Amino acid sequence: MKKILYGFSASIISALLSLSAFADGHKELIVASWAAPFHTQNENVFPWMNDQLNSCSGGTLGLKVEYGLAPPPALYDSIRDGVADMTWIVYGYTPGKFVTTFIAELPLIPGNAQEKSVAFQKTYEKYLEAAGEAKGVQILANFTHGPGMANTKAKITSYKELEGVKMRVGGGVANKIGTALGIAGVNAPAPKVYEIMSGGVADGVLFPFETMHAFKIAELAKYSLHNPEGMYTTAFAVIMNDDTYNDLSASHKKCIDDLRGVSLSRKIGNYWDKADDVGRASAADYNHELTVASTEERQYFRDKMGPVIDEVLNSINSVGVDANAALAYFKEQVKVENALSGN
Q1: Is 145:208 a contact under the CB 8 Å cutoff?
Q2: Cβ atoms within 10 Å, residue 147
Q3: How far apart are CA 183 and CA 57, in angstroms?
Q4: Helix (H) / strand (E) containing 337
Q5: CA dist 222 → 35, 225, 303 (Å)
Q6: Which residues of the chain have pLDDT under 70?
Q7: In the chain, what are the domain boundaries?
């Protein structure tokens, strides 16, 4: 019954989207979003994109954010099927559909959100896009969050102490990292983490600092273990329905094209870095304690991650992409962006 209702709702929403194209040439693109309205993607990124499109089009093209159109794991398929015009996705929420994007999630690559987002987009354009994994959608920008950490209710200062701990690990490469460390993985989309931690289903989570505020994790996880060499990150994208894009007027399409790509990835990454700062402040309000992995712990982590990295690179090679070349380029571009930004 639930499936029937969802399909019925989707068809109605898809039909109503035609109302966002006004007779006078104005076009309002519907963004199916998730996370709280105060999450940086909703509070900053999409409003900034809307302003850019309005400015470019003389006020005839803009965005309207809607919540609850589909759960996060279903958003890629929903946009492809026309439930809305645009969204942001976690690549790892759609297992089996994206392999090459794992390159951005690999451990042992230091860097913040801006650096890795720019490197991800450049690597996508140079190496990954040719694999043709995205179906029925336009990839407007690839991006990542900032440095991922192990965040727990109980104090943990060693990766060895994570063995057997029930933790939400997300998707993609984070799952493989969790398995390699002996974590008892709990899979759930990010908006459900507060619920599963407060309910005792999980005792920790792999998350970046921004979630201390965005998902109120500071209330539950008072301890974090951070690795300056890079523990993990998550690969995201802003995507747009192919038909929506193709049906735009030439001038509106140019506005989208002027916005998309490396510059958009850089802007999104910068907003996410600022969100990490907000998360740190929120964590401090709850007397959060951060442990930086020792030299010994970093070596332990490196030893554990070797097989993970090999497995991911082999999977990328299997779809016809030179994984080693792509990884080398990604790492190089992280350093380039770091130098340009003065970090």
Answers
A1: yes
A2: 22
A3: 50
A4: helix 323-341
A5: 22, 11, 27
A6: 1-24, 343
A7: 2-145+235-275, 149-232+286-341
CA–CA dist 86, 17 (Å, integer): 12
pTM over 0.90: yes
Q: How far, CA to CA in Å, does 323 sit from each of 92, 127, 314? A: 18, 9, 7
183 phi/psi in degrees, rounded to 5: -70, 140
| Residue 269, strand partner residues | none
CB 213 within 8 A of CB 35: no
| Superfamily classification of domain 2-145+235-275 | Bacterial extracellular solute-binding protein, family 7 (3.40.190.170)
Polymer length of the chain: 343
- Sign of the torsion formed by the C-alpha atoms of 191, 137, 268 and 127: positive
3-class SS at 85? coil
The 3-class secondary structure across 5-21, one letter per residue, is HHHHHHHHHHHHHHHHE
Query: Are the C-beta atoms of 137 and 88 separated by less than 8 Å?
Result: no
Residue-wise pLDDT for 106-164, tens only, equals: 999 999 999 999 999 999 999 999 999 999 999 999 999 999 999 999 999 999 999 99
CATH topology of domain 149-232+286-341: D-Maltodextrin-Binding Protein; domain 2 (3.40.190)
Contact 121, 131 (CB under 8 A): no
- CATH topology match: 2-145+235-275 vs 149-232+286-341: yes
CB-based burial, 1-20: b 16+ in 10 Å, e otherwise: eeeeeeeeebeebbeebeeb
